[in-house]
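Friendly challenge for the regulars: who can give me the structure tokens for this chain first? No prize, just bragging rights.
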Amino acid sequence: MGSRFGGLKQVQPVGPHGELIIEYSVFDALRAGFDRLVLVIRKDIEADFRATIGRRLEARMDVQYVYQEIDSLPAGFKAPAGRTKPWGTGHAVLVARDAAKRPFAAINADDFYGAGGYRALAAHFARSEHYAMVGYPLRQTLSEHGTVSRGLCATDASGRLKSITEITKIEKSAVGASYTNTQGAATSLTGDEIVSMNFWGLTPAAFPQLEMQFGDFLRRNQSDLKAEFYLPTTLSELNERGEASIDLLQSDDAWFGITYRDDLPTAQAAIKELIAAGRYPSPLWG
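First reply, four minutes later:
Bragging rights claimed.
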């Protein structure tokens, strides 16, 4: 819902003809070979999404809406009184299980990932049944206007994903970035670290795994009104236990998002530069 942005940031225009970030993502995905779009939303904002996104995209591909609600829980669980915050990105993917029957990409609707990541993921699925993650250097993902949360990736000797550690309140610094660790000490980062921006390649085999992990999460955190079932953390746990194999892909394209309202002009300027460089037509859909 964009608490730091102050509104429904997914429907904020970034292109010169009113295009949304999700439209550029769909454009890149279509060119890479993806042919179906599943939008995970709250039921109460469906009308806004259909009016601002659906009309332009439904004519170009199969579009399905699924709903992430507070009470969309496994049997035997009940949302605690007073819970208003969605259960997190892992839950958002889980509620799409009936709509995703083939290998798929999972992304944030308000993040711009660039065409390279979609091409890399499509090529990956052409040769492998492993899960995959498209990572980005941390320095490309920081905001000038406040702190961000990122999944810090560790790799093994072959470059495959080993683990992801969710770090909150990362801020840009003169030498890269910094955050306060769990012991309260300031910790520096170079900015070259690869982080998860929730750009995943998964298969339907992930859904029973996510459901089991979500049940464990609820047993531990059901009374916590703010706890979130993070997709990067969950997949990292599966990977560390040997229950999933995740290939780490990288894209040379820039990432940007609109965490804060002050990020919006920066995103609009970045799209303008990409259009000038011939990366996108304007208007986007001709």
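The chain has one domain: 9-276. Residues 16 and 283 are 7 Å apart (CA to CA). Your move, everyone else.
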